[in-house]
From TrEMBL:
Family from the record: Belongs to the protein-tyrosine phosphatase family. Non-receptor class myotubularin subfamily.
One GO BP: negative regulation of autophagy
One Pfam family linked to the record: Myotub-related
Protein name: MTMR9 protein
Gene: Mtmr9_0
Organism in which the protein naturally occurs: Hippolais icterina (icterine warbler)
One Gene Ontology molecular-function label: protein phosphatase binding
Domain Myotubularin phosphatase: 1-151
GO cellular component: cytoplasm
Amino acid sequence: WLGRLESSRWLSHVKAALSTACLAAQCLDREDSKVLVHGAEGTDTTLLVTALAQLILDPSCRTLQGFQELLEREWIEAGHPFQLRCARSASSHARGKQEAPVFLLFLDCVWQLSRQFPFSLEFGEQLLLTLFDNAYASAYGTFLCNNERER
């Protein structure tokens, strides 16, 4: 199992996402600079980094309500293609190159932050696990489809 984890480079993806988000947060906060975030595809990395940077910078995003608003604004309303990215979910029939667990990566990064700063978040591991479960087997339809119109 550890060998498969190592070969997936999952932890290096977590590290890269957190490092980039921390750099963006530092530029915004300490250097009072403007930051442009643009991933290769235009959405995945962008949503990942901007959502993490907001979580780092804005204490309201670390509350339960603020985190829910962050998810809705940065992932759902921004049009993250959940059906394509979570292709192994119960609601998806697609398999292919577009499958990428970016939302899961975001949840793992949030979990890593919660482990490093245990008193900073108003929510815990159970919420992150529930979000993961619903991204792959949505009981409520929140993470279904690829955009708001399809939902």
